[in-house]
Amino acid sequence: MNRSFWIIALINFINSLSFTILIPTIYQYGREFKLSDIETSFLFSIFSIAQFFATPIIGKLSDRFGRKPLLVISLAGTVIGNLLAGTAPNAMVLFFARFLDGITGGNISVAQAVIADVTTPENRAKGFGIFGASLGLGFVVGPVLSLVAQQRSLGTAFLLSSAVAAVGLILTIFFLPETLERKSEANVNVFNLGLQDLIKGFTFPKLGILFAINFCVGTTFTLFTFAFQPYYLNVLHQDNKSLTLLFLTIGIVGVVVQIKGVKLLTKYMSLVKILFIGLFFRSLSFILMPVIPDIHFFLGASIIFSLFNSLVQPMISTLISLNTSPEDQGKMSGLNASYLSAANGIGPVIAGLTIDQKNPITYGHPLYLAGIATFVVLFFAVRNRRKYTPKIV
Rounded CA gap, 322 and 200, in Å? Predict the structure, then answer.
């Protein structure tokens, strides 16, 4: 792995840190503005819906103009958006701030394209494993910083997130070299990637199936993430301190798996088989979590989740990259990120509709739904495995 790889991994960690500082905050912050659960679900969704439309364009722009300038724009949007959110005087400004962060939020897709630029096909799984670990490390540190910031106010967490993103912006400007060697044709209309093209993406040979798998995986994950915190607080009757410790534990396990586990497993198994294992135990853990409303049982299911969930996204990202030509890495990363953003926009709304605030036990319903749906995704992935398995694996 060369210098550019480690720089983008560091920037990705900082970007992840900026995002994960907000995870324990958004739900409670929305409630400060007197938003209901369903309204809060839209607060989660507006960010992802904006990303859905923006990331394919950002991906194509990065193929045409380079990775660095688009990463700078994306990080600048995060800095401004979270600054606005942290100082929002009303819910309208808060919603606009989340929209602004989303519409410029192509950070992950551009970073993934950089990883594809600087790794060989043989090392790409390892590269995306480390890339995923840098995300996971953000899940370790971010919630802890969030809890510290919340001692002053929930809005302070957004201001801290903005400051962290500003550090990533500075690193990108001054230390990250341009990694794109061959730019796409100038006559390509980078803004011509609307809904018709997004639907068409599902028909792409090999990639279409992977896009569909990732879309469904993203939907089930956001069903889980929206219900996780209120279930933990309202059904299991735990506090923010223990919630932070749980986030910390999940993050540490995830980082270890992505740094050591991915490297070890790829020596003995194909990427596709690792994906299947990750999906199976992920779905099982979702279903187990709400079966018994007991904190010890829930912690056990959460450990299973953290061990195997960490395998899923690196495998999907690697398979997409290996099935994509070098000049289209940014476009396909952007397209994939857009599908994932759409899923992230749909998941919280579905979860919000299945919850009854007057009956806290219903916070477990999205977890059951996420588990069942993930089993369906696994069945689909196994049945169509020959259509997307690259020769290298």
Answer: 20
